[in-house]
Amino acid sequence: MSSFDENEAFEAAGRPSLSSLAMSARGTPYLDDLNPAQREAVEALDGPVLMLAGAGTGKTKALTTRIAHLLNTGRARPNEILAVTFTNKAAREMKGRVERLMGQTVEGMPWLGTFHAICVKLLRRHAELVGLKTNFTILDTDDQVRLLKQLIVAANIDEKRWPPRMLAGLIDNWKNRAWTPDKVPVADAAAFNNRGVELYAAYQARLKALNAVDFGDLLLHVVTIFQTHADILAQYQRWFRYILVDEYQDTNVAQYLWLRLLAGGHKNICCVGDDDQSIYGWRGAEVGNILRFEKDFPGAKVVRLEQNYRSTPHILAAASGVIAGNADRLGKTLWTEANDGEKVRLIGHWDGEEEARWIGEEIEAMQRGTRGLAPMGLDSMAILVRASHQMRAFEDRFLTIGLPYRVIGGPRFYERMEIRDAMAYFRVAVSPDDDLGFERIINTPKRGVGDKALQSIQRVARANGVSLLDGARLAVAAGELSGKAKGEVGKLVDSFDRWRRLTLNPQQSHIELAEQILEESGYTEMWQNDKTPEAPGRLENLKELVEALEQFDNLQGFLEHVALIMDNETDEAGEKVSIMTLHGAKGLEFPAVFLPGWEDGLFPSQRSMDESGLKGLEEERRLAYVGITRAEELCTISFAANRRVYGQWQSALPSRFIDELPADHVEVLTPPGLYGGGYGAAAPGFGGGDIEERAASANVYNSPGWRRLQERSQMRGTSQPSEARNIVIDMTAVSSFTQGDRIFHQKFGYGYVMAIEGDKLDIEFEKAGSKKVVAKFVVAAGRDGEDVPF
DNA sequence: CGCTGCATGCTTTTT
DNA sequence: GCATGCAGCG
Please, what is the Cα angle at A347 between A343 and A353, to 5 degrees? Predict the structure, then answer.
């Protein structure tokens, strides 16, 4: 039986009586801070509770106060409370707020964390029950895909018709539903050219051989252990006296089973969520979990948090109007004591670039203070898009006008190529049998070790039943490699031997070792010699990676933790507008929010509707609800008639969600005639109507205003070259650049100044084409790039 | 083995 | 429009 460490020790010591733990003498002042619904949710400590918390209703406050109350009344010790979140950020926030409420650091809430982090902890204790060693490694998506690719090739399947990513998605889905290979239903097993389940089983076998798991396994293995070892399950059921779950609407089947199993004893489970904010169906979340709660947990108490502390009544009404279009809701009515404020604003544009230009100008106006609103800092404003490719229009525009912005989302720190490469070096140094890591870096930087050399090494390794690193060693000794590869691989193997010895030396600083590895492997040098605009950033990231090591005692510890902490906290200083996806905005709030791209096909996304029909449309509608409810004071929705999609111009109709906005709470900014056909003006019954009907009635494209715009836009389009030729070159301008200067720009790379117009430069970039950019965003670069300016 | 040039095919994203 | 991935050549 595996150890229960802190639990066992505690049980052996005997459970202190509840009264001795109770600190009720201190009173419960924190309860006075709550509204009646919140208070009800906090005080209903026993039995199943569903806290239905609408956007901005103080759910984190209720959740954390509930934890404080559990501790304060002596119902549970900190380590007897299981509190799960989806993200590290949410877990951190919760921990911090509990500590503030308790007025002290909560000594160990070891079981407050993400589903995955908690599962890692459980799985390390019981790894042997699913055929793993306790030091198993966690593969990221990249490793997962590379592994699957090997299996697909080995199974003689055409990887072009059946791409590894597709299989990865399929297996993820199955794992989300808690289907082990033997449990995949026959109907689904036909997937992936009839070989899906076979490959899934092969993949699991390979993972076991590598002593590795993927993210899905973390949950699935633990569920399997619980299902097959009643004694172990019973111990945890006893141990976790109270369970709290954040964002319950986002749980998938595996997480749901996990929770049900653990809550099976005390049944003290409190789930917090909002069915209207379920936006992760596409990655396995089941809204059904929250809709079914009362059936799953008979006698459940349902508490609704409906008082909103975030948004104005107009914003709430607009959001409510949209979400009312969904069936199968548990239903909530948000209300607020706030004053009316501004109506939600709606504006149409000719195309996506104009939309970006308008929003840029609007942001600058709001900075100065406009519409009777106080001047707003850029940190108070956000642009929320449906799909990340929409961000480019804004980035381009903001770079041109010199408006500071930050993109939230994007590739996470630990997902970046250079970070993964560096980590692969560390991994192999720490565990020489990490074949995936070795394979990743054997030819990075380029060592002249190509496909053929790698295949020889793999062959030797397999024939001798050893790791790739040892296979490489043997291949070199046996003269299996050609000239260049032989020398290089030999050197690499020697290096790893040396680094390995250093990892085992307790005197060796792991930070210095990490630097040494990156230096000696030639990895740092590779990026120093790289002339692409990304290279400096990558070197910067490597520096950051090494700095992050300081928080750990050794490389091993660092590697173990990092797999789960894919944080992307880029707290770049300075006032900046945030640009992010609607998904990325969940849980955030901003005084002013822009929601561009409300066009049918883009939002709601055509693909979502094609793939998931009405269910997909409803999820898109929830996304619209999430978007609007991020706004505190000012919410601006916009759409464009034309947009470049995959380089192709396409026109679209305004989103059907626009028709669903309640007219009383919307101010249409679009000039009359521009959008005369649909919203408010002409059609009182804009709530209904299918798309064809609206297309027929929308005289948008025939209206005089629209025509005017179109003409203007076309004129602009064709006149640009001549305008450019007429630019007055002002040599006295503030900028210190002259025509013909070679410059460097953070995003666009190298280019030459073609013309100067005030503080704006016309630059012909080597890679990015010609752009207008504010002078302060570029730096002088030497001729032919010999002088990299950092 | 590595580079270049063409064909392809696309949401959303945490862990 | 762009990144990725493959085939073909040096």
Answer: 140
Residue A255 annotated in active site: no
DSSP code for A785? G
Please determine, for residue A243, whether its predicted confidence score (pLDDT) is greater than 60.
yes
Q: Which two tokens stand for residue A261?
A: 């199993």
Q: CA-CA distance, A165 to A208, in Å (whole number)?
A: 21
- Average pLDDT of chain A is 82
Is the Cβ atom of A458 within 7 Å of strand B at any atom?
A: no
Residue A503 CA to its chain's centroid (Å):
33
User: Contact at 8 Å (CB) between A658 and A346?
Assistant: yes
pLDDT, position A6: 45
Please give the distance of CA A241 from its chain centroid, rounded to a whole number: 32
Q: Is A201 helix (H, G, I), strand (E, B) or coil?
A: helix
Q: How far apart are CA A260 and CA A245, in angstroms?
A: 12
A551 is catalytic: no
Q: Are A274 and A54 in contact (CB under 8 A)?
A: yes
Specify whether A277 is catalytic.
yes
The answer to whether the Cα torsion of A294, A297, A298, A300 is positive or negative is negative
Nearest-angstrom CA–CA distance, A235 and A245: 20
pLDDT, tens only, A291-331:
999 999 999 999 999 999 999 999 999 999 999 999 889 88
Residue A85 falls in the annotated catalytic set: no
Query: How much is the pLDDT for A782?
Result: 52
Q: Which structure tokens are listed for A363?
A: 């942001």
> Has residue A729 got a pLDDT over 90?
no
Residue A55 has φ and ψ, to the nearest 5°, of -60, 135
**Which residue type does A786 have?**
E
Q: What ranges in A213-252 are assigned the alpha helix state H?
A: 215-228, 230-239
List of residues 6+ apart from A123 with CB closer than 8 A: A130, A132, A136, A213, A218, A221, A222, A225
pLDDT band, residue A366 (cuts 50/70/90): very high
- Protein-proximal positions, strand B, CB < 7 A: 1-3, 9-15
pLDDT in tens, A701-712: 333 333 333 333
* A781 band by pLDDT with thresholds 50, 70 and 90: low
CA distance linking residue A422 with residue A519, whole number of Å:
11
A446-483 pLDDT per residue, tens: 888 887 888 888 889 989 989 999 999 998 888 888 77
Residue A526: per-residue pLDDT: 87
Q: Which of A80, A246, A355, A434 is an active site residue?
A: A246
CA A475/CA A489 separation, integer angstroms: 9
Number of Cβ within a 10 Å radius of residue A490: 16
Is A569 exposed, middle or buried (CB count within 10 Å of its CB: 0-12, 13-18, 19+)?
A: exposed
The CA-atom distances, in angstroms, between A607 and each of A352, A354, A387 are 20, 25, 12
* Nearest-5° Cα angle at A644, A642 to A650: 50
Spatial distance between the Cα atoms of A444 and A466, rounded to a whole number of angstroms: 22
Task: Give pLDDT, residue A289.
Answer: 93
- The pLDDT score that the predictor gives to residue A193 is 77
Nucleotide closest to A250 measured between CA and C1' = B14
> Which nucleotide in the DNA or RNA is closest to residue A163, CA to C1'?
C5
A59 is catalytic: yes
Catalytic residue among A38, A39, A59, A670: A59
Both structure tokens of A97: 């707020």
DSSP-assigned states of every residue in A641-680: EEEEETTEEEE-PBPHHHHTS-GGGEEE-SPTTTT-SSTT
Residue A453 CB in 7 A reach of strand B: yes
Distance A562 CA to C4 C1' (A): 27
> Residue A681: is it exposed, middle or buried by C-beta count within 10 angstroms (0-12/13-18/19+)?
middle
